[in-house]
């Protein structure tokens, strides 16, 4: 993770987070450990809890607990971990799903004025935070790291595009070439999955509710149709929407024998497990991460109990991807520490985007051109 390493080295010299407690609710992985160490190098005291206990790398949690406060047990301890970080009264929070910031608003709304701000890593978290903002309940500034251009490219398109298919293949050993993959949701992540599934030889169908995204998918060469129509054509179904019950009873009853169901959204609600159980006459585990549901004369294979497949069945995003994501998180925390932000959801400042991208290019030993003074003047004045 060379980008985060260079930020850590600068933080160690400049100490921009000195004296601050930073609370983080993130996936507890080796990549997150590097982010924690970078924040500590900047002078912060860090308290970390797991945003998804099913994705926790417990050996990493054990090792990191010797250096920082870590709460990352099993699912039964998730709420207690969040509460422990809330009790530290962090002045900056880093979130993956808005759980920590939501808990802080519930626990101590009268003291949120002491917070410098927060960052958010996910689309789902930003939906929650924008709803709070619209209702006048969001009391702190939040930097929307998830919507940074670098985040969209690296985390969503490249990272999830590869790791989602990696999780499906690891769990099933299925050959994607020649199959029909149904991608439900054509945001940045869905686009990455669709492109990589196509590159592996699959036929791809895209299902969308947004007309512009649906049009983009069609113009980029993919079949576009309603999920109810795609249900009887697909071999592999991947939900990437951020909303619940994307695949429901009416879809399950139309699917082929042997269809594979995978979720790559934020929570295990995109595939309706209640509908799937109700439709099934028998459920059995046929591989460690594959449950086979007998629906009439057809078997449907659910991966990782409907949880996020690239985390539950694979290793998540490659470190090179999380390097950029966590570089943005560290730089955003530094920007919040300077103060001057107002409550509400804010875009990642352009200078942070440029710094992260420049550091990544340097790590790749790539040099790019710069505008000449005359070109800069032309762009600013546009004089013939």
Describe the structure.
With 384 residues, the protein is an alpha/beta fold. The chain has 2 domains: 197 residues, Adenosylhomocysteinase-like (Rossmann fold, 3-Layer(aba) Sandwich), CATH 3.40.50.1480; 155 residues, NAD(P)-binding Rossmann-like Domain (Rossmann fold). Helix content is 44%, strand content 18%. The chain is built from 16 helices and 15 strands. The strands form 2 sheets. Strands 9-8-7-10-11-14-13-12 form an 8-stranded mixed beta sheet, with helices on both faces. Strands 3-2-1-4-5-6-15 form a 7-stranded parallel beta sheet, with helices on both faces. Strand 4, helix 5 and strand 5 form a beta-alpha-beta unit. Helix 2 packs parallel to helix 14 and helix 4 packs across helix 5. It starts with a helix and ends with a helix.
User: Mind summarizing the main beta sheet?
Assistant: 8 strands, mixed
Secondary structure tally, helices: 16
CATH homology superfamily name of the largest domain:
Adenosylhomocysteinase-like
Number of E-state strands: 15
Q: Could you name the CATH class of the largest domain?
A: Alpha Beta
Which blocks of ≥5 consecutive residues have pLDDT under 50? none
| Average pLDDT rating | 94
Q: Output the radius of gyration.
A: 22 Å
| Topology-level CATH name of the largest domain | Rossmann fold
Number of domains: 2
Q: What is the correct CATH architecture of the largest domain?
A: 3-Layer(aba) Sandwich
Percent helix range: 40-55%
**Sequence of strands across the biggest β-sheet:** 9-8-7-10-11-14-13-12
Q: Kindly estimate the percentage of residues that lie in beta strands according to DSSP.
A: 15-25%
Terminus-to-terminus distance = 45 Å
General form: globular
Q: Give the helix/strand class.
A: alpha/beta
């Amino acid at each position: 993770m060379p980008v985060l390493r260079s930020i850590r080295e600068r933080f160690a010299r400049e100490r921009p987070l000195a004296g601050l407690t930073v609370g983080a609710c993130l996936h507890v992985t080796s990549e997150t450990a590097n982010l924690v160490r970078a924040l500590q190098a900047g002078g912060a005291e860090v308290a970390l809890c797991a945003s998804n206990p099913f994705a926790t790398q417990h050996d990493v949690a054990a090792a990191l607990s010797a250096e920082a406060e870590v709460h990352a047990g099993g699912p039964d301890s998730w709420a207690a971990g969040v509460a422990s970080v809330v009790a530290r009264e962090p002045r900056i929070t880093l979130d993956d799903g808005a759980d920590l910031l939501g808990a802080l608003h519930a626990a101590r709304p009268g003291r949120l004025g002491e917070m410098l701000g927060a960052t958010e890593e996910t689309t789902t978290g930003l939906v929650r935070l924008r709803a709070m903002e619209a209702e006048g309940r969001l009391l702190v500034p939040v930097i929307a790291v998830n919507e940074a251009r670098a985040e969209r490219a690296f985390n969503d398109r490249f990272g999830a595009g590869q790791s989602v298919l990696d999780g499906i293949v690891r769990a099933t050993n299925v050959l994607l070439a020649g199959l029909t993959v149904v991608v439900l949701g054509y945001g940045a992540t869905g686009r990455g999955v669709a492109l990589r599934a196509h590159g592996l030889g699959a036929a791809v169908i895209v299902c969308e509710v947004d007309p512009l995204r649906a049009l983009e998918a069609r113009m980029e060469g993919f079949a576009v149709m309603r999920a109810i129509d795609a249900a009887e054509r697909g071999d592999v179904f991947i939900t990437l929407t951020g909303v619940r019950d994307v695949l429901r009873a009416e879809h399950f009853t139309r699917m082929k024998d042997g269809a594979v169901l995978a979720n790559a959204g934020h929570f295990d609600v995109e595939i309706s497990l209640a509908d799937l159980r109700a439709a099934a006459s028998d459920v059995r585990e046929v591989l460690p991460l594959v449950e086979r549901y007998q629906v009439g004369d057809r078997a449907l294979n659910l991966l990782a109990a409907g949880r996020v497949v690239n985390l539950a069945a694979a290793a998540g995003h490659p470190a090179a991807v999380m390097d950029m994501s966590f570089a943005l998180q560290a730089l955003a925390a530094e920007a919040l520490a300077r103060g001057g932000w107002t409550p509400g959801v804010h875009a990642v400042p352009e200078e942070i985007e440029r710094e992260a991208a420049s550091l990544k290019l340097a790590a790749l030993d790539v040099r790019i051109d710069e505008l000449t003074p005359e070109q800069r003047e032309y762009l600013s004045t546009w004089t013939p």
